[in-house]
Design brief:
This protein is mainly alpha-helical and 183 residues long. The protein has one domain. It is 71% helix and 3% strand. Strands 1-2 form a two-stranded antiparallel sheet.
Length: 183
């Protein structure tokens, strides 16, 4: 599943909490430094894909007439162009491989900046980071559904897409994350 920039702080917090709760990792400068490092790298990864997709849209716009004339399926064409350009933008398209790669980058950065200490294999620590990402992704849609249901049950109707809706959604989303220990 593709993650967006709004999810980066939540995933970073999940990673930091899971590392803190492991019995074999010590944080040198606290949970916030680990979370901030993970967030920065997650956002960088997301922005690389955003840049790639913007370029794909540009190419499609430049060739819109030809694609229309040839009756090309735009969604298919988008994917083909994205696949072709992914290497230039250093974007891994397989999400499992991508999150594994991201886990390695986060671990390397945490080690390089002396933010964590451990006496087990790096792979064990990387697996915690990868598991945090995967766990968040697997649960976020369920949490989103819970929040949407809560908003629907408000006595006063809140219009989806409005600023008020976004504020209420964010507040309820964070509450749900806290309930399950992701924040």
């Amino acid at each position: 599943m593709k993650i967006g920039k709004p999810h980066a702080p939540y995933i970073a917090n999940k990673i930091a909490i899971d590392l803190l709760n492991s019995t074999f990792i010590k944080m040198s400068f606290g949970i916030e430094s680990v979370s901030n490092t993970a967030k920065k790298l997650i956002e960088e990864d997301i922005m690389k894909e955003v840049a790639l997709e913007e370029r794909v849209y540009e190419i499609m716009e430049e060739n819109e007439d030809e694609m229309e004339f040839m009756q090309v399926d735009q969604r298919n064409m988008f994917w083909l162009i994205k696949k072709k350009l992914a290497g230039e933008y250093n974007v891994v398209l397989s999400y499992e491989d991508r999150y594994s790669d991201l886990s390695h980058k986060i671990l390397d950065e945490l080690i390089q900046n002396d933010l964590i200490e451990f006496k087990v294999s790096e792979n064990m620590v990387k697996n915690i980071i990868f598991g945090s990402i995967e766990n968040y992704i697997n649960r976020f849609e369920d949490i989103e559904d819970i929040v949407i249901d809560k908003i629907k049950n408000y006595k006063r109707k809140i219009i989806p897409g409005s600023e008020e809706y976004d504020i209420v959604f964010e507040k309820l989303y964070q509450e749900e994350l806290k309930k399950i220990g992701m924040m």
